[in-house]
Specification:
With about 375 residues, the chain is mainly beta. The protein contains five helices and 25 strands. A hairpin with a 4-residue loop joins strand 12 and strand 13. It holds the Pfam family FBA_1.
Amino acid sequence: MKILTSMKTHFNIVGSCNGLLCLSDDLWGYRDHYYIWNPSIKKSVKLPEPIFIFRTHGPFDHTLGFGFDSVTNDYEVVRIVHTGFSTDKVPPDVEVFKLSTGVWQDITPVSPSCLFVPKTPGFYMNGACHWVASKRKGGESQNMIVLFDVHGETFWEMMVPDSLVRKFSGFFCEGFVLFVSNGSLCLADSSSGNDKTIDIWMIKEYGDPESWVKQFSISSRDISFNVGVVDEIFSLFNGGRQRQVAHFLVKPIASRENGKILWRADNGLLVSYDPVAEKIKNLGIHNANCLTYRNALYVNTYKMSLILLGKLTDNSAGDTCEDLSSLCKKEAKGGRKFHKGNTKRGLRVVSPLHISRLMYMSRMKAKRLRMIK
């Protein structure tokens, strides 16, 4: 897979569907390089330049979503852009990229009058991408959940639990994080105060705001843990022991079948929290120790697939070849499935640095094969 970015190091993972990963290198500045990548078969598509970019629209903030349209058997990337020097334009501009057409389409007329958290990708479930957003009413803002129906290309609003509906003077209500646990939409709320308490909510009936139920709360005494740090001076005077530094849970990433929840800690570590035993386990996996890239830690169940196989190759020019369009059409008409019959599933933890290493290895392998030929 060719990497034509200026950084050539880190990618943010927008999301994953059916064995495909959507990647972006927009964590810094106004880079607008996006890829849809199948790591199983080492095939990728580089998306063309979006419509709303710095060169034509000036400063902006944006967020992304990646989802699958099961009706048309197509994959879509939705890009929500707040343009302007204050980057708080409401409603934002919205564009959608479809894998079958290979072009960005402006769908701003259906844009909701909400402000989205910048560079915080929405997650895909039940045919829709989900984000935490805020809506301005008079001189105040109110937090909510916004959904984008991938097939219908429409936005919907979902209310958070009544006790979490707060009005504030700014645009953002910080401290809300969405994730999935046992197939249900969950919300982590740490916006109640400075006592470092995190409340975990789950919606029992998807789409019914009356069915939000608080699952448990994590108090300040539960969410800190120590990590050994190499400190030669400390070790010299303490029998070679490592200096212990306290860290805290910041963001839920995913849940496991045993009920434990995977969290990103403030130092970029991935840890597992057991709500029954109220214990934290350091999994020994960490992201780049940079504030921007810490937020990019991504965990999901990966399913191997053959999507993008055929004659499709890495499209570094950004144009979509005809094989891509015909691939989707054939699968939709003839019912052919490009997934392996006995797919392998497993929990994968991926960071931008890990993604870059995988792409580098793939690129080196391709060069060796060309040399052999």
